[in-house]
Amino acid sequence: MRRWLILALLLALPAGPAAAETRYLAYDAADRVTQALTRGVTLEVERSLLGSISVRRLFSTSQRGSAGLRRGGPDGARAVLPADAAAATVYGLAPGVDGRGLGRALCPGADETWLVIQRVRMARPLTVDAVGRWSDGTLRPCVRLSYLWRGEWAAPPAGPVLDDPAPAPAAATTP
Q1: Where is 85: in which H helix or E strand?
Q2: What gap in Å lies between CA 146 and CA 164, rounded to an integer?
């Protein structure tokens, strides 16, 4: 009987990706360097059934712009950072218009840029380190961005998403 009850409970639970929820977490710049580069950001995050948070997209709070993020990057990205970045996740910038622009702004002169984002927690400060790979193949830290918790948005920030390809123009109709 006990075995059937456990099996029924397991089958009643939704699948992991189906149970994930999307949230929008806003942060304000905490120091002058961060203020000069980004002012503030809103993160589109996915929270799993078990509570882990994965960042999917970064929106500029003060300007119209966003960059898609994909989880993963070189193992050495965390190794070039201070010890407090050990509990962080490496994200690559999606190769869209704003992703390239953000990479150039954070790591001028680097061929590739990754963001090493500290563990995202609700109502806690956030630290983001930019790491770049130069033409000689070395990984170097570029800048550390520090943010203070601002709040949670119910919907994504307004404005166009610039990383997505432009919609195809409508076909011309002749009268």
Answers
A1: none
A2: 27
